């Protein structure tokens, strides 16, 4: 969402294989404590778009995106903690 905001997109369709995440966003109720920060970030970023929709997709349809997200998180962790890279 941050990149979409940076690119000045006005409409966004987000998909996730986490039913807990999609339900928490869609219901607009207080989320479980373990995902509170993520939901708060998503809802704050949502304010920058004219239209944002959130949809659940089956995990087997999300393998490529899941792999890319894990790679990005690993890269971020390595930048934040160079000892993970053996530096």
From TrEMBL:
Gene3D superfamilies: Ribonuclease H-like superfamily/Ribonuclease H
Residue ranges of every copy of the RNase H type-1 domain listed in the record: 6-72
UniProt keyword terms in alphabetical order: Membrane, Transmembrane, Transmembrane helix
InterPro entries xrefs: RNase_H-like, RNase_H-like_dom_plant, RNaseH-like_sf, RNaseH_domain, RNaseH_sf
GO molecular function, one term: RNA-DNA hybrid ribonuclease activity
Entry keyword Plastid: no
Membrane spanning residue stretches: 35-57
Keyword hit for GTP-binding: no
Signal peptide region: none
Domain of life assignment: Eukaryota
Family annotation (PANTHER family): OS05G0353850 PROTEIN, POLYNUCLEOTIDYL TRANSFERASE, RIBONUCLEASE H-LIKE SUPERFAMILY PROTEIN
Name used for this protein in its record: RNase H type-1 domain-containing protein
């Amino acid at each position: 969402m941050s990149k979409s905001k940076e690119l000045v997109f006005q409409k966004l369709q987000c998909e996730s294989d986490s039913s807990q995440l999609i339900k928490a966003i869609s219901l607009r109720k207080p989320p479980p404590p373990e995902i509170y920060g993520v939901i708060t970030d998503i809802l704050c970023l949502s304010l920058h778009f004219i239209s944002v929709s959130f949809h659940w997709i089956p995990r087997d349809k999300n393998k490529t995106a899941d792999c890319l997200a894990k790679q990005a998180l690993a890269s971020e962790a390595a930048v934040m903690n160079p000892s993970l890279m053996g530096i």
